[in-house]
Amino acid sequence: MGKMLGGEEEKDPDAAKKEEERQEALRQQEEERKAKHARMEAEREKVRQTIRDKYGLKKKEEKEAEEKAAMEQACEGSLTRPKKAIPRGCGDEEEDEESILDTVLKYLPGPLQDMFKK
Question: Taking the complete model, does pTM exceed 0.90, yes or no?
Answer without folding.
Answer: no
